[in-house]
Amino acid sequence: MKRNLDYTVVKSVNKEDGPKIVEFYKLNGYNTNNLVGSSYENFIGDSMFYYGCIAGVFSQYSQIVANPEFSPLVSVLPMSEVDKFLNEINNPNLNSMKITKQSLNNTCIKVNEKGDGKTILKFYKSYGYDVECFDGSYDYGYYGVENDSFTHFLSENYVGKCTILPLNTADQLYCEYPKEMYVCDMEIDDSVKRIETIIGEGITCDGMPYYISRSDTTLNLLAWKYAKDIHLVESKPVEVIELTLKEIADKLNMDVNQLRIKE
Question: Against a cut of 0.90, is the pTM above it?
Fold first, then answer.
């Protein structure tokens, strides 16, 4: 459904933002006056511009429109709202998609502002991707997975075949707390079998994360240095041993004819 976007503008920060903003307003029924959002429209020197509609007129506007003292009626929409709208148009089944680690291969999410990076990292990490080479400090570009490897793209020009997911996708962590996890005070491996119901996370005074569970007997809180989702710990293949009837009979000190094997 088309929205009433009169007296709204969107800030164009990156060179690829302009065409998206123009398309956003055009798809909502506004005459964009042949503006295409090209780079020469977006940047003059170091100035950043806004695209939007004021009093029914779509145009490119200077930064003064974002100052409530001069333009009290104008609302500044976040670029993430534009990205979300265009992704829903271009990928109508995206929101109904069941998210799995496999489905997130060759996808990425745009960083719109400071803090988004850590949110995106936490999202991909919850589905089992190794994000340890990044700390989420980039406040530009895209974080995502290309050919099963987590990475950072400088801009949309570098994402290649990756599908760009809206930022709100990162809200869908694999499973919020409380949840059962394998826990340990040393690195998790296949031999770890202790399971605790983790009720949350914390940060030590030296900045190290830890996981919190509650004792079933004393109700005291317990802290664990390592925890991992059960579905992410690969189970070892079951060892299959083949035996003949004679080998079984020999083990039991019986004659083969005395054995009857049942399912």
Answer: no
